[in-house]
Amino acid sequence: MAHDLKKLGMTTRNIHTGQHPDPATGAVAPPIYQSSTFAFDNCAQGAARFAGEDDGYIYTRMGNPTTARLEEAVSHLEGGYGGIATGSGMAALNTIVFGLLGKGDHVVATSSMYGPSRMVFERDWSRFGVESTFVDTSREDLVIEAMRPSTKLIVVETPANPTIVLTDIAKVAAIAHERGALLAVDNTFASPILQRPIALGADVVYHSMTKFINGHTDVVGGMVIAATEELGTTLRKGFAFLGGCVDPHQAWLALRGFKTLALRVRACQSNAQVVARWLEEQPAVEWVRYPGLESHPQHELSKKQMDGPGALISFEVKGGIEAGAKMLDQVELATLAVSLGGIETLIQHPASMTHAAMPRDSRVQAGITDGLVRVSVGCEDVDDIIADFSSALRL
Ligand code: LCS
After folding, report:
1. Which class for 66: exposed (0-12), middle (13-18), buried (19 or more C-beta within 10 A)?
2. CATH number of the domain encompassing residue 289
3. Which residue among 214, 229, 258 closes a domain?
């Protein structure tokens, strides 16, 4: 089945990948292998597994049958060699850095990315000799200027959190490869339903699975997908020692959520398009950034690189942060909470929340203004979302 799936549509593939009946019992829903360790038939078999000569399971930090289904499913949609499920999106990013970089290596990354993803380079990986430069990766001239002979990795988040700025993946992949570097893309905001970076030239894709992949605001997890077997093997070796594995029950929940990824993403996206257009017409709103609007500076790139503009919108209420905070305090249907990509509408203020750990100067330079509000549009009836925002803006 897995072989033929590649020829089918995205929704069909999403529903069926990783979902084969359990070979032992025929169970249609996958079993949860809630076991930390797996018995060997004899010493020779145990030794063969440790030597990589036998594919069987050893220990859940290294691999688990429930988790493997999720890894197979996500990497299938991403078009990658194999997935590595991690305990969080941060663990996914750190698995990549831990597996690929060392002292003296340099990273070029998107200046407007999830705050902790940036801060872990500036505050933590720098202590281990990994250097980093953050630039607006939507500008190829700035990416080229930032490259050094020691640059081993470019990390791009597109659409970026929370500015919704897009980076041209194919162009940045070419810049990386011409200079002997690799490209990693955070595909959390788009999900593989809307964007498949490996097909555009990325070497590694990663996710906060906490978001669209799981989609129900009840799991924290991450995923790393390598484009090639060689890279996948290197990353998995590092991952086994870094130790950021996901619990099998969490993996099972994420796999259950994943089955409806295409349905959820398209439903959230169609609401987001309506909400973004409505926001743009409101006199109380200063500006709106959403790739599905003609006013987005990279509207054309979104059509070229993505199969849809997604469900994340950023905007600013006239009157800056005070006016924005007033709106956030007044919403009733939308939930004032960080995170995104669930079936419910979430709204938050990055400068004081998700990106608060970044120094203000870096935030402003990255385009994360004090008044920016980010909304992750959910699957509710769109008229109800608009009614909620309308009354919150009026109060
Ligand atoms: N990458 C992106 C684009 C993210 O938005 C996040 C989390 C991460 C990686 C890290 O994933 P985690 O470890 O949380 O699973 N973004 C969050 C946000 O915008 N609000 O709360 C978390």
Report:
1. buried
2. 3.90.1150.10
3. 258
Q: Which of 211, 236, 259, 289 is catalytic?
A: 211
Residue nearest ligand 1's atom 16 by CA: 339
Point out the domain boundary residue: 210, 231, 258: 258
What's the whole-number average pLDDT of the chain?
Answer: 96
Q: Give the domain range for residue 189.
A: 5-258
Which portions of the chain are predicted below pLDDT 70?
1-3, 395
Clarify whether residues 326 and 207 are in a common domain: no
Model confidence over 243-254: pLDDT tens digits?
999 999 999 999
Instruction: Supply the pLDDT for residue 2.
Output: 47
pTM for this one?
0.97
Distance of alpha carbon 295 from alpha carbon 288, whole angstroms: 8
Pocket test for ligand 1, best of 96, 210, 353 (most atoms within 8 A of CB): 210
Residue 3: what pLDDT?
58
88 lines ligand 1 (CB under 6 A): yes
Tokens 């959190």 -> residue: 161
Distance CA 94, CA 121 (A): 9
Q: Which atom of ligand 1 is nearest to the CA of 210?
A: 15
233 lies in the same domain as 295: no
